[in-house]
Amino acid sequence: MKKFQFFRAILPIAVPAAISFTLLNYLQKPLTAQTSSVHLRMGNPSNAGASSSNLLLSKSQYAVSYNCYRGTSNWVSWQLNTSCLGSAPRQDDFRADTTLPSSCCYQVNSSDYIGSGFDRGHMTASADRTNTVTNNSATFLMTNIIPQSPDNNQGPWAALETYSRDLVNQGKELYIISGSYGTGGTGSNGTKSTIANGNVTVPTRTWKVIVVLNSLNSDASSVNNNTRVIAVDMPNSQGIRNNNWTNYRVSVDSIETNTGYNLLSNVSSSVQSIIESRVDNL
User: Fold this and answer.
1) How far apart are CA 1 and CA 7, in angstroms?
2) How many CA atoms lie within 13 A of 266 on its CB side?
3) Does 183 score more than 90 pLDDT?
4) Which fold has domain 24-275?
5) What is the C-alpha separation between 165 and 172, in angstroms, rounded?
6) What angle do CA 56, 58, 62 make, to 5 degrees?
7) pLDDT of residue 50
8) In terms of DSSP H, where are the helices of 172-251?
9) CA dihedral 255, 46, 120, 101 (to 10 degrees)
10) pLDDT by residue (tens digit) across 87-105?
11) What's the pTM value of the predicted model, to 2 decimals?
12) How far apart (Å, rounded) are the C-alpha atoms in residues 60 and 26?
């Protein structure tokens, strides 16, 4: 619901208009309006655009609000249906996203995570893009990665990713928005606020919202009062590996309160008021 205005702790710095975004790194697109990307059919949660703390990266595989000051995404949004799944192998080619404006944005490298005690945690999961090698490779750009505690990433977070694909294999189409907030998480080497010499902020929490629809090529107009919405908010810490992902279910409203985002802004306000206030229990 549109109840909170997006603010960041650090004032945004506008990206100069002269900066152009190239077509490198597997079909990166220029900044676009929120309605032009299939991955933003539910909305643009933070009105991402040209701000260095809220930079919209619209790719063929997903859409990102990137925060140059944190060295991670604010959120990543993507469509998931059977057309996204196939037999392409996991590429494991973690690398910097060179489409970021280098003049004002540190380009995080895979090596920045070495020895940190945190996994290179995907937002758009690698296994959500297995229809082509190119699309799988795109999930390994570091703009799609956050420092995730191993027990979070490999435990309930991974279990929810698998459950999501199970729904897709049952014929559902999903619209997923994923992100993190806060500063300071606990990995295998203890609690840290940043890694990579301060260039990457370690979040305190990880969250995800999944809109479950019954037909392919749906959009916000397909969402009604009975639409299933799964929302989770998990601690970015150790000791939770064996916990069930269902333990972390919350309302969309609570995530909006903690992040300041308007997560399903393209859905009618009357429907939002119902589906965002309840907690999934299926």
Assistant:
1) 16
2) 22
3) yes
4) Extracellular Endonuclease; Chain A (3.40.570)
5) 9
6) 115
7) 94
8) none
9) -170
10) 999 999 999 999 999 888 9
11) 0.88
12) 8
pLDDT of residue 122: 98
Element housing 253 (H / E): helix 252-259
Paired residues of 58 in beta bridges: 29, 63
3-state helix, strand, coil in the chain (%, to 5): 25, 25, 50
Q: What pLDDT score was predicted for residue 155?
A: 98
Q: What is the predicted pLDDT for the residue at 1? A: 56
Give 14's DSSP letter.
Answer: B
What the block records as the tokens of 175 is 């619209």
Sheet strands (E) in the chain? 28-29, 50-51, 54-59, 63-67, 72-80, 119-122, 145-148, 173-181, 185-187, 190-192, 194-195, 200-201, 205-213, 228-235
> Could you tell me the residue ranges of all domains in the chain?
24-275
Catalytic residues: 122
Q: DSSP of 108-138, one letter per residue?
A: --GGGGTTSS-EEEESS-GGG--S-HHHHHH
Kindly tell me if the per-residue pLDDT of 18 is higher than 80.
no
Chain mean pLDDT for the chain? 90
What are the C-alpha distances in Å from 98 to residues 68, 198, 208, 247? 13, 20, 26, 38
Among 165, 161, 166, 182, which Cα is nearest to 232's? 161
pLDDT tens digits, one per residue of 203-218: 999 999 999 999 999 9
Residues shown for the chain: 282
